[in-house]
Specification:
The complex is a heterodimer of chains A (192) and B (258). With 192 residues, chain A is an all-alpha fold. Chain A has helices at residues 4-22, 26-48, 51-67, 78-92, 103-109, 112-116, 120-138, 141-152, 157-164, 168-191. Chain B is built from seven helices and twelve strands. Chain B has helices spanning 3-13, 24-34, 50-60, 65-69, 73-81, 111-117, 247-255, and strands spanning 86-90, 107-108, 133-137, 144-149, 165-171, 178-183, 187-194, 197-204, 207-212, 218-220, 228-234, 237-243.
């Protein structure tokens, strides 16, 4: 459940920090970075598919966002603006497909202990999760991006649009198509 | 779409799926402190329709009648650099906000790392030996490599930046790339050849570079050294050497690139 007051106060905090950072307060900007570094890093990771590239992209994006603070419209939400810069940085660092880590595959490899510890019912769940990861890994980049940004990062449609560089209205249809293809992959698995 | 699938995805998202977030706040504040003039070191402004760009540039590019007496520099340059998308325009003065400053060289890397990171061959002027610092800029599509040399024997110091020479290499020729070099009436242009490649010698007063990157963001380049520039294209790679040296010496350095 969304606590609107909480969202509003976060927004106010951002605005206060931005105002101070604009006035030259580097600590205020540091605090702003600390508030958003998770979402920035993970967005960069979803797009670049590589931890080192994501770190570099997010770090450069924050430095550039600082340099561009003068052009940020006061009162506007900070996150979509930031994510546009982050996504651009990450996209420019995207490597050839072979060198990418592939999010879902990586997650699967990192997590054998969950399976080992489970009772029979959760083993079934673990199988399902495994299938889901496999299906995610088989999605095309475009589809995987929108699914991760919306469901794993929990970005709003506006924020997802900013990260994808598309119109907010396009996010819904892209997500819909991505989920259809994900479901098709899962059904292929079931049939096999 | 089945809501079950959404629920399953959200459940999967509660498990670790991304590496832990590094301490960006610490790294970013350290970088800001290390830069003498942190704000506006480069100006990525939001992507706008291209028309807006053209209008903005049209406002900048006022060709006074006097300048028309000068050989049509723009056509002359487009003639040979049009292929790589580099366009040179003469303007009465540079846009505000362009000032000499220490150039941002990008992430510090070794030569091997730079060669690993970009698709084009990175060449070093053999006449100078190993650069004092190598920077890799990954925000430029295709990457950009900067080789910086400190002032020394035969290499004068740039008063604004403290650097001696700056060699820049990037891949040109992207059809979607838009590069514009702005020069002022005091800037002299001369066509030269570097080996078999066409080149341009820019000397006199400062110039600026404006370009549109692959994602449509319009950027104004740092002025870098307020110095003489030898710009040439070899294959698809655009090379640039900047420093307070004469044409003959610059050509020597350029020919020694390997």
């Amino acid at each position: 459940v969304l606590d609107l007051r909480l969202v509003a106060s976060h927004h106010d905090d951002d605005q206060a920090l931005i105002a101070r950072a604009r006035a030259g307060d580097q600590d205020a900007y540091g605090a702003l970075v600390a508030r958003h570094q998770d979402v920035a890093f993970r967005t960069a990771y979803v797009i670049s598919g590589d931890a080192a590239d994501a770190e570099e992209a997010a770090q450069d994006a924050f430095v550039k966002a600082h340099a561009a603070l003068g052009r940020f419209r006061a009162g506007a939400p900070w996150r979509p603006w930031l994510l546009t810069i982050v996504a651009n940085e990450a996209r420019n660092r995207r490597r050839s497909a072979g060198r990418r880590e592939h999010l879902a595959v990586r997650a699967a490899a990192a997590e054998p202990s969950l399976v080992a510890a489970s009772a029979e019912s959760s083993v079934l769940l673990a199988d399902r999760r495994e299938a889901l990861r496999g299906a995610l890994a088989r999605l095309e980049e475009r589809d995987r991006e929108v699914v991760f940004l919306r469901f794993f990062l929990d970005l709003s449609e506006a924020e997802t649009a900013a990260a994808l560089g598309c119109r907010p209205g396009t996010v819904k249809s892209r997500l819909h198509r991505a989920l259809e293809r994900l479901r098709a992959h899962l059904e292929d698995d079931d049939a096999a | 779409m089945p809501p079950d699938l959404e629920r399953e995805l959200r459940a999967l998202a509660t498990e670790p799926w991304a590496p832990p977030t590094p301490d960006l706040a610490g790294a970013v504040t350290a970088r800001l402190r290390a830069t003498p003039s942190p704000a506006r070191s480069r100006r990525p402004w939001r992507a706008r329709p291209r028309r807006a760009l053209v209008v903005a540039l049209a406002a900048l590019v006022v060709l006074p009648a006097a300048a028309m007496a000068i050989p049509p520099v723009r056509e002359q340059v487009l003639d040979w650099l049009g292929i790589s998308g580099v366009e040179v325009r003469r303007v009465p003065e540079l846009p505000p906000g362009v000032a000499a400053r220490a150039p941002e060289l990008g992430r510090r890397v070794t030569l091997e790392e730079a060669r690993d990171a970009v698709a084009f061959p990175v060449r070093v002027p053999a006449a100078l030996g190993a650069p004092d610092q190598i920077g890799l800029e990954r925000d430029v599509p295709g990457g950009r490599v900067n080789l910086a040399y400190l002032p020394g024997a035969g290499i004068p110091r740039d008063p604004a930046t403290g650097l001696g020479l700056l060699v820049t290499e990037l891949e040109g020729g992207g059809a979607d790339r838009y590069v514009e070099k702005l020069i002022t009436p005091g800037t002299r242009l001369r066509r030269v050849r570097v080996g078999n490649s066409p080149g341009l010698w820019i000397s006199g007063s400062p110039h600026a570079v404006i370009y549109e990157d692959r994602s449509g963001v319009i950027r104004m380049d740092d002025l870098r050294l307020a110095a003489n520039v030898l710009l040439w294209e070899r294959g698809r790679v655009v090379h640039r050497i900047e420093g307070h040296l004469g044409l003959a010496r610059m050509l020597e350095l350029a020919r020694s690139m390997r």
